[in-house]
């Protein structure tokens, strides 16, 4: 008997282990994720031995407006909190992606088109003379003694005089300079925009100083080269920065201004003090009239602005004599950070009306869903054709026409990018993931939380990403043009869809359909609280979401994040049954269902439409059904007559679902009854556990069903809605069918 049973299990298609088909979508991630340890435990939290490095910076730099260059010197204090002895340090030189020896143009594909813009031709010919990249003039220890170092493109290795042990720190100096590029011509995350009508420059400066690479328990040194797309992995630290600029410039920066008495007028200081007490609308620190006056003449001298920032992973600033500046306070649960905007007159009236308001709304929503915003300020800076984020400051597009008019699309685009870039303060500036490796961990999580902000404060704004239905076109596309979400930044094919849209849609499905808002929000906030000011990995996110909710989500991560499968659940068959009741038992309670013989052609038609009459099934009593003493003993425990009576008038609908897309999802069924009422049922994704391809389930209904729709509210990103309705309709529109049923 045992041998026979084993043979049946092996040969049965349901248990086809040899082909790897059984339950593969519900296998636990197991060895796919890194093994939990004392640094990162199995719950997804930092372990008892979790550690991370730290780097503090003291920087002095000067921005030259005559030749668009920057010169700087920094002292870095590096703390080794790891259990390892380090013999060298890696420093990031991101400006070197613009050097003449950069790999970036060599690894970018290009192709000819029938019509080419000047910028497209320039990108191919590289026919411009720009001397980019860092010019390193000094690398020395705390005493000024030169340190041996080696530059490998965008990375510099500093060889230590002796190994750096756990608990020790090393102080070194770097002096450098570089030419700031014309961002409008050469592109980039930072640079300058030139305004030919008034002859002024607006600088948005980032990746401007040599920065420590991350050394952690996951990657060791994260020293992957910067090619331009994969962003940054950075250590937290304290910054003391002195920025020397033309004396008529206004500087917006990461951190808090330390020398307002030296750089602000008495009027500006008074306005700033007023803004710190104003919560309902922005206060103008520098008005448009004042900015217009400043840009009309150019001062000869310089002024030094000093900013300090604690516990930040990076530092950026913007500077121009063109800046209008407004600010207001934002009341959070326990903190009152400042929301600020800096923008040239070319941004008005749109920026004065909307920017700081959007900053404030973002801080409120993100603080609710993650952690309370911990920094003293959040800044939005306007310049053309950009959306880029840094701690406490971001650079954003959204420029009206020259006459000040703008379309709704321009307004919503500008508000959307401000929410998104300010939101990056949380992902990854605070919840500090490795952007060079996993773009989705900051872009995807941020895009999802952006959608929550827009739905809370901007209901009239068209949502671009963050709902299931918004990713359908991508997911039903050619798989050759896709990569799984779990793909390195430089290898992603459709960057916006893969790193922003799909993970945001996945989290929306997870919140609204799979887990429900209450469970999801608690788990998501737990992840943020656990990993604030730390370095989370994908496994930490996946494990925390399960740990804090008691929901097994391995199937979800596996399908949405590790494959390019899509959702296509087809309602392929519907059969209607009623109980066969003998004539002498009818007693005017109901019309007896009829047994009828139908042809194969009629049977096939009935799979796509409701039959005129229900098929019948015969109810077996205890004596008829019992095939063994054990079965009889069990069945005698139920009230057979009561069961038969209760179900005599019920309609039984046998539904067959096919998983055509490969991505398993919950099944949401909307029933429309003969009397016009509607009911929705939810089947968890685990319905597919025993057969991932086809599932059949019977539903008992008191009323006759006239219409069935699967996923009626487009919650699951199903790419083929025509097979979601029953009866089928020729125009393939389930909404028309839904309306017909409702009538």
Automatic annotation (TrEMBL):
Query: Gene3D superfamilies in the record, alphabetically?
Result: Neutral Protease Domain 2 (1.10.390.10)
The record ties this protein, via InterPro entries, to:
Peptidase_M1_dom, Peptidase_M4/M1_CTD_sf
Looking at the record, the residues that make up the Peptidase M1 membrane alanine aminopeptidase domain are 387-560
Alphabetically sorted, this entry's keywords are: Signal
Signal sequence span is: 1-18
Q: Quote the CDD domains the UniProt record gives.
A: M1_APN_like (cd09604)
Q: Which Pfam families match?
A: Peptidase_M1
Point out the coiled-coil segments of this chain.
none
Superkingdom, taxonomy of origin: Bacteria
This chain belongs to the protein called: M1 family metallopeptidase
Q: Which organism is it from?
A: Reichenbachiella carrageenanivorans
């Amino acid at each position: 008997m045992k041998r026979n049973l084993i043979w049946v299990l092996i040969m049965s298609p349901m248990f086809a282990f040899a082909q790897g088909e059984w339950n593969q979508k519900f296998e636990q991630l197991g060895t796919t994720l890194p093994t939990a340890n004392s640094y990162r435990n199995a719950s997804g939290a930092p372990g008892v031995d979790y550690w991370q490095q730290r780097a503090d910076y003291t920087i002095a730099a000067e921005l030259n407006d005559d030749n668009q260059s920057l010169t700087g010197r920094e002292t870095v204090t590096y703390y080794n909190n790891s259990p390892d002895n380090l013999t060298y340090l890696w420093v990031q030189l991101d400006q070197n992606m613009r050097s003449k020896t950069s790999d970036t143009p060599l690894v970018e594909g290009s192709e000819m088109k029938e019509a080419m813009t000047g910028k497209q031709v320039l990108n191919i010919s590289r026919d411009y003379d720009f001397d980019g990249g860092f010019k390193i003039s000094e690398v020395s220890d705390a005493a000024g003694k030169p340190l041996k170092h080696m530059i490998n493109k965008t990375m510099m290795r500093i060889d230590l005089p002796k190994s750096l042990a756990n608990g020790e720190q090393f102080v070194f100096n770097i002096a450098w300079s570089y030419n700031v590029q014309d961002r409008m011509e050469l592109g980039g995350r930072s640079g300058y925009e030139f305004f030919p009508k008034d002859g002024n420059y607006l600088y948005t400066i980032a990746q401007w100083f040599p920065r420590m690479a991350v050394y952690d328990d996951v990657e060791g040194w994260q020293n992957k080269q910067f090619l331009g797309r994969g962003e940054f992995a950075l250590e937290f630290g304290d910054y003391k920065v002195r920025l020397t600029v033309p004396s008529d410039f206004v500087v917006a920066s990461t951190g808090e201004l330390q020398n307002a008495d030296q750089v602000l007028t008495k009027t500006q200081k008074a306005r700033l003090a007023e803004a710190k007490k104003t919560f309902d609308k922005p206060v103008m620190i520098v008005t448009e009239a004042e900015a217009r006056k400043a840009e009309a003449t150019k001062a000869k001298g310089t002024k030094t602005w000093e900013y300090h920032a604690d516990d930040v992973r990076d530092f950026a600033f913007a500077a121009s004599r063109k800046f209008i500046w407004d600010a207001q306070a934002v009341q959070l649960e326990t903190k009152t950070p400042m929301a600020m905007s800096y923008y040239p007159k070319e941004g008005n009236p749109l920026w004065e009306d909307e920017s700081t308001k959007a900053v404030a709304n973002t801080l409120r929503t993100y603080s609710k869903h993650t952690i309370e915003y911990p920094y003293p300020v959040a800044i939005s800076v306007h310049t053309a054709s950009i959306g880029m984020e840094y701690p406490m400051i971001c650079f954003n597009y959204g420029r009206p026409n020259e006459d000040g008019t703008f379309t709704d699309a321009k307004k919503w685009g500008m508000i959307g990018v401000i929410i998104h870039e300010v939101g990056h303060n949380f992902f990854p500036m605070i919840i500090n993931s490795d952007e060079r490796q996993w773009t989705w961990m900051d872009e995807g999580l941020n895009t999802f939380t952006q959608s929550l902000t827009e739905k809370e404060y901007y209901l009239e704004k068209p949502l671009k990403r963050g709902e299931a239905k918004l990713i359908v076109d991508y997911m039903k596309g050619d798989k050759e043009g896709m990569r799984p979400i779990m793909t390195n930044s430089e290898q992603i094919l459709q960057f916006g869809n893969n790193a922003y849209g799909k993970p945001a849609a996945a989290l929306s499905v997870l919140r609204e359909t799979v887990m429900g808002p209450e469970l999801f929000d608690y788990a998501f906030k737990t992840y943020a609280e656990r990993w604030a000011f730390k370095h989370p990995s994908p496994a930490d996110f996946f494990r925390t979401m399960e740990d804090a909710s008691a929901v097994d989500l391995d199937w979800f991560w596996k399908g949405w994040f590790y494959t390019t499968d899509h959702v296509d659940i087809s309602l392929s068959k519907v059969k209607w049954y009623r109980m066969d009741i003998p004539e002498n038992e009818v007693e005017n309670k109901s019309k007896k269902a009829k047994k009828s013989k139908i042809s194969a052609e009629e049977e096939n038609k009935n799979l796509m439409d409701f039959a005129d009459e229900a098929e019948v099934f015969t109810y077996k009593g205890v004596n008829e059904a019992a095939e063994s003493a054990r079965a009889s003993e069990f069945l005698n425990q139920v009230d057979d007559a009561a069961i038969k009576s209760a179900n005599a008038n019920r309609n039984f609908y046998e539904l067959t679902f096919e998983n055509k897309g490969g991505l398993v999802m919950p099944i949401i069924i909307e029933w429309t009854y003969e009397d016009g009422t509607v009911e929705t049922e939810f089947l968890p994704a685990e319905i597919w556990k025993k057969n991932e391809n086809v599932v059949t389930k019977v539903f008992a209904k008191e009323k006759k069903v006239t219409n069935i729709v699967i996923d009626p509210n487009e919650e699951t990103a199903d790419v083929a809605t025509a097979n979601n309705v029953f009866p089928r309709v020729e125009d393939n529109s389930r909404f028309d069918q839904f309306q017909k049923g409702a009538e």
